[in-house]
Fold this protein.
Amino acid sequence: MRMERGGFRTDHLTFGVLAGITISCIIPIFLQFGIELAFPLLVFNIFYVFLTFPLNVKLTRKLNMLLIGNLICVSWNQLFILFATVAAEYFGSFFEALFIILNPFLNLIWIVSFWSTSLTLLNASNDENLRRENVD
Amino acid sequence: MLIEFLETTFFILVALMVTYLVRHYIFTMAVLKKTDKNKMDIISASDAYQPTVSVLIPARNEEKVIERILQRMTELTYPKDKLQVIVVDDASTDKTGQIAEEYSKACKLIRVVHRNQQEGGRGKASALNAGFKHAKHEIIICFDADYYPQRDILEKLTREFVNPRIGAVQGRVIVLNEPQNMVTRLVALERIGGYLVDQNARDILGLIPQFGGTVGGFRYDLLKSLGGWDESMLAEDTDLTFRVYLAGYKIRYVNEAECYEEAVENWRAYWKQRYRWAKGHMQCAIKHSLKVLKSKNLSLKEKIDGLFLLNVYFMPILALLSWIVGVPLLLLKSSLLLETLWASIPVFLYSFVGNFAPFFEVGIGVYLDGRGRAQWLIPLMIFMFVYNVSICVMAFMDVSVFKLLKRSGNCWEKTHHSGNGNCYIANYDNCLKGKDGSESESNNAYAVSRSYNIHSHHASTSNS
């Protein structure tokens, strides 16, 4: 099958939505996360699924990237929440307010960076497929 | 009472921005869906229709770049007997007029219109009107002096006029000097999002593709009936776009018609250019918003899109306002809904201002263009947005003050072109020449700004 860069994969999107919902539910339940960690996870999955899964790239690659993204999300937010908890002890309610204000901004920094990097990788894999087909 | 007021304001602001976000998601997905169909359109489109064309090139102190576009005009594949090129030397104080005259002597189809210091220097619209007086053909196509079009661009643009409802066309702008520095690279991203996705989607969805002031054209009769370019507007292109639609005509965006521009090279030049665009766009919003709503020539979706388009330069100001309102609101009253809405605000920071295109629109555009490495720069869009917020705020204050004082306050700040793009054209010409020195048939100047990109989409698809 010839790989085209354009094209909208509704089937992949449907699968991605299901995968995103499953991951967003399973991880917080199993790891017993609070809302402050479940929320960024949900935001990431919504973004990633709706922006990446419609692309005409191999589904397994997109799923792998989704899982890696979730791992980064959990690690980033765990670390950040730990830091915030310690800082709140020292600086009091001011830091809590600062955390609420800055947290979405800081989360989006890695989400956008991860998304653009993963798009580069997916693009590269597509190019590889195109080149192989041309050689064949 | 104060909290309720802040809350309502915050909700309205976020709702407005989310509406833009949804609009651009629809745009992105529409382009993704239609990519394959577009390829078929290119093949099936008729090239038989070739009306007579007058090309207008306004130029003011463009000695470093004028030569390349004039050379290009002599290389166009469009039938020479149907072509007229008018260079408007807009009171240049350098060698622009002299260079144009030399080309005019060597090539009969090029004509130079000189404007003296009293007539010239009043902006691009004024120069275009001066050139328009000398135009005599059915279609008027405009190019800026720093642009470098494909050889067959006129065929691609003019074939759309076979449909009598089409009043104007717009081609795609690609940055020529993209590898030069970070500013040009980011402008290139902006152009990809703006043309490949935004303009393309508006064309696909039957909305309002915008005439961008260059790499586009009009029917002579329509332009004449509209009275040419409005010299009182700083964004004369946006103004003309809406006048065309209000007159009952449509604009087509032709993605395959590519032209290469020399983008601004530093932040200061970027500020000047965007400040003019922002101010001009705001003037257009004031002038046309009500007319768009009342027009019987526009469908409902065109009206909605028209309003979105007209008011796009107000969005960074609203984004700033949402932070100003949101922070005290979060400190005074914390709720899950508020925090959720607040979490959506950062998304708007990753947007380009000219069309409020969010990061994903740019990313998918870059993906469709086969430009893997350019995607790495998307996170930097945040700095561009913050910079643009101040540009838009200044422009808004300027427009408001002059509106209150009932003065025009228009001062056309010309964008300086260094001619640094010329070296990329030299690379491109070398790319086109085969081992035997003969030029290949391809006239796609993609390679100009992308010679460094070994994974060129066009190269791969043409090979296949």
Observations:
- The mean pLDDT of chain A is 84.
- The helical segments of chain A are 10-30, 35-52, 59-91, 93-135.
- The two ends of chain A are 12 Å apart (CA to CA).
- Chain A touches chain B at residues 2, 4-8, 35, 39, 43, 47, 50-51, 54-55, 97, 100-101, 103-105, 107-109, 112-113, 115-117, 119-120, 122-124, 127, 130-131, 133-134 (CB under 8 Å).
